[in-house]
Amino acid sequence: MSEQPRALLAEERRARIAALAAQQGAVRVDELSALFQVSEVTIRSDLDVLAERGLLVRDRGGALANARAGLVTAFEQRAGQNLEEKRRIGRAAAQLVQPGDTIIMDAGTTLMEMARCLRDVAPLTVVTNALNVALELGGRPDVHVILIGGSLSRDTISTIGPQAVHDLGELLVHKAFLGAHAVDPEAGLTDASLEIAQVKRAMIRAARQAILLADAAKWGRAGLARVAPLRAVHSLVSDEGLPTEARRACAEAGVQLLIA
């Protein structure tokens, strides 16, 4: 545990605790308290929350890694990055959804924050390839969730592949809310794999409006696989850190910019 301690938000701290447990096999309360510079009572509370989520197994003096939690550990770790920006973006994006809408929700940590803000929007039909988004919204009787088929991506906890693309090709929705690995004025929207990029393109084709959720840290970078040019999206929801050149590029591409 050599990481430099600093003040962290609770969710970011928990994400890092889950990642440490996955790496080391076990974590101890006293060591985590020293690492994150918070009380042992706070750490015990963090471990209890992570145990409830199935990410850890509580043990005397600490916790053990849950062997079944490898699927979500990387996602939880990403969720703690730029968390406040993602929450603001998620809230702003949720305000674009109206009762009676049919929407597509992509996979990703920012989209999960958006899903948590849709509890008061009803009725609603949500098409998604994200297992965690489906679980977040699927328990509500006034929300109809359509889960896209395909192969499981462990990195994004979502379905990808030809079946996912086929299923999306059969649909027409009001709005598609997308995440992106990176955004650049020349490369456009890009992602980490060809399969993920193909699913995102199918989402754009299936929607009357495509709305991109991307914090400022995503700007000016390019991933391996092209998704679509910037002009393919109707709106970009981002945060106040979005640089001037990004705002200019959105204006030139005719993309409506919403700053959360």
Describe the protein's architecture and organization.
- With 260 residues, this protein is α/β, with parallel strands linked by helices.
- The chain folds into two domains: 10-79, Arc Repressor Mutant, subunit A (Orthogonal Bundle); 83-259, Rossmann fold, CATH 3.40.50.10470.
- It has helices at 10-24, 29-36, 40-52, 70-79, 83-94, 109-116, 131-138, 162-169, 194-205, 244-253, and strands at 26-28, 56-59, 62-65, 102-105, 124-128, 143-147, 151-153, 158-160, 173-178, 182-184, 188-191, 207-213, 225-228, 235-238, 256-259.
- The strands form four sheets. Strands 6-5-4-9-12-14-15 form a seven-stranded parallel beta sheet, with helices on both faces. It has a three-stranded antiparallel beta sheet with strand order 1-3-2. Strands 10-11-13 form a three-stranded antiparallel beta sheet.
- Helix 6 packs parallel to helix 7 (131-138).
- The chain is globular.
Spell the H/E element sequence: HEHHEEHHEHEHEEEHEEEHEEEHE
Q: What would you give as the CATH superfamily of the largest domain?
A: Translation initiation factor eif-2b, domain 2
Which consecutive residue ranges, at least 5 long each, have pLDDT under 50? 1-7
Largest sheet geometry? 7 strands, parallel
Strands, total number: 15
Helix content: 40-55%
**The CATH C-level class name of the largest domain:** Alpha Beta
Integer count of domains:
2
Rough shape?
A: globular
Note the total helix count: 10
Gyration radius (Cα, Å) is 19 Å
